[in-house]
Design a protein that fits this description.
The protein is of the alpha/beta class. The protein has 15 helices and 14 strands. The chain folds into two domains: 185 residues, 3-Layer(aba) Sandwich (Rossmann fold), CATH 3.40.50; 179 residues, 3-Layer(aba) Sandwich (Rossmann fold), CATH 3.40.50. 45% of the residues lie in helices and 16% in strands. The strands form two sheets. It has an eight-stranded mixed sheet, sandwiched between helices. The chain has a six-stranded parallel sheet with strand order 11-10-9-12-13-14, sandwiched between helices. Strand 1, helix 1 and strand 2 form a beta-alpha-beta unit.
């Protein structure tokens, strides 16, 4: 099977789920760098000539021909797909699917749209692309969601139920092993971008409550993002500089090592003001695979992964007091943390492996490829 993957330019280490598709899907793969609002690149070069004469010719065609507002985009995708000659195209993110659907339809190439998070929930995205999404849902061979909540949301906004598939993320469990919560100190680890939907400020407030009863507790935090500076300032204002360590963005081996040393993983995800929501946070899968329990929220795909009271502990969004109490509970009870962590490791190793996720996506793509 020849597969073209159209993905945004990847500049963020948290998008490992996208690189995993390109690296592990069993197909003859060509990767096209695209993304909503940008012209695609292939093999490090723009698909369309950037010579001044070619750019002027395209501009004149777009201005003089009615109904060609997306002329350059459609021309570029048509050109590169004629070059790669795929049996099926995988569009990473809903916006990308909107961009390439006209070219795929023109060339009679089936395409599959893989949603990941904000593209299925952010209100301004859904409003801006409402018409495009409706057309895309009609023409896509398949649509992929990564959580039960996302699956339901996509169908609610118009995706065809019979062509909308749930295929959760998976991880390489062998990279995340060796934790022993019963022997660790009362150290919590958090991993993720400092963005609204992860509500890092609420996690800091919850941990501040922990320190009132467990002054030896520690929080080690990996990640960066637009709220990083504000959260560091908040930790200082709450006089928690000695208890909270901000590690910034770190490679996966550092993440794995931090998880091995921790009592539990913590994350207080919420629906952001603009509707932005998680898909299924990979760090939560990695924590479970490591053998530590997760304390998090009943948000998006998290309840698909964390079995409350069995592999971790869940609270409602913005319930800071319950988050605090669960952290205190595991800070005091290493035996319970070990019990939850062992169950989490078993749960992840059976249900959320990279192999299982890749096999599921490959089956969806292979079926779509037969729809030429």
């Amino acid at each position: 099977m020849r597969l073209s993957i159209v993905q945004p330019l990847l500049g963020c280490t948290t998008e490992t789920f996208i690189t995993a598709h390109a690296e592990h899907l069993p197909a003859e793969i060509s990767v096209i760098q695209g993304g909503y609002g940008m012209l695609p690149e292939f093999r490090g070069r723009p698909v369309l000539s950037q010579h001044w004469s070619a750019r002027i010719a395209r501009k004149l065609t777009r201005q003089l021909t009615p109904g060609t507002a997306d002329y350059n985009k459609n021309l570029a995708y048509t050109k590169v797909l004629r070059q790669t000659r795929p049996d099926v195209v995988l569009a990473e993110y809903g916006e990308t699917g909107v961009d390439l659907m006209a070219a795929c339809s023109r060339l009679s190439i089936p395409f599959v749209v893989h949603f990941h998070g904000h593209d299925a929930s952010q209100r301004d995205t859904l409003a801006r692309l409402a018409e495009g999404y409706r057309a895309m849902f009609q023409s896509a061979a398949a649509v992929v969601a990564v959580s039960t909540a996302m699956h339901e949301q996509l169908i609610a906004i118009g995706a065809c139920p019979t062509r909308t598939h749930l295929n959760v993320y998976g991880i390489d469990c062998a990279r995340f092993q060796g934790a022993n919560p019963i022997q660790s100190n009362a150290t919590f680890v958090a991993v993720g971008r400092f963005v609204d939907k992860k509500a890092p400020h609420l996690l800091l407030m919850a941990f501040h409550g922990v320190l009132q009863q467990v002054p030896t507790a520690r929080l080690r935090w990996i990640g960066d993002g637009p709220l990083f500076g504000s959260c560091r300032d908040l930790a200082k204002a709450l006089q928690m500089e000695d208890a909270v360590t901000f590690l910034g963005s770190q490679p996966h081996d550092v993440v794995a090592n931090e998880m091995r040393q921790a009592r539990a993983f913590v994350q207080h995800s919420i629906e952001a003001e603009n509707g932005d929501s998680e898909g299924t946070p990979l760090a939560i899968l990695e924590a479970g695979a490591s053998g530590i329990p997760v304390i998090s929220t009943r948000h998006a795909g998290i309840p698909d992964v964390v079995r409350d009271g069995e592999t971790g502990l869940l609270v409602d969004e913005k319930d800071i007091e319950s988050m605090t109490q669960h952290m205190i509970q595991l800070a005091h009870d290493a035996s319970l943390a070990s019990q939850l962590g062992a169950a989490a490791q078993q749960h992840i190793s059976v249900n959320f492996t990279l192999e299982k996720s890749i096999d599921g996506l490959h089956a969806i793509l292979a079926n779509a490829a037969t729809q030429k």
